[in-house]
Amino acid sequence: MDIPVSGFVVHSDDSDGRHSHKLYITNWNGRPVHIHPFSGVTSFDVGHRHQYAGTTAPAPSGVQHVHQYQAETSFDDGHMHLIRGTTGPAIPLPEGGHYHYFEGVTTVNGATPHAHEYGGKTGNEI
């Protein structure tokens, strides 16, 4: 099954010689898309915790949906972790819009290998 997707690509030519592109999806199967901000603090493990922040991947507006998300944690105690996963379904807000719950466990890292738990709810849709 083919799903029509439209958007645009932004080319970046950084001064340090690296070259990159970012894909911005604006329409998914005839529906506009949106994203959500998210942030939080991990559980306290092995004497420290980490902060994280990011935005979800785009998803279609006006239908039930979930979002993929990924972010790197802050660099604490000499290392960082990666968080990634899929949010829960949309939860309507009384004043309009919606949010999503998310939770998971970071990747394993550190001088003493360990992981942290994290979770929360996204901000309203953008």
UniProtKB/TrEMBL annotation:
Q: Which domain of life is it from?
A: Bacteria
| Listed InterPro entries | YmaF
The name this protein goes by in its record: YmaF family protein
Q: What is the native source organism of this protein? A: Paenibacillus residui
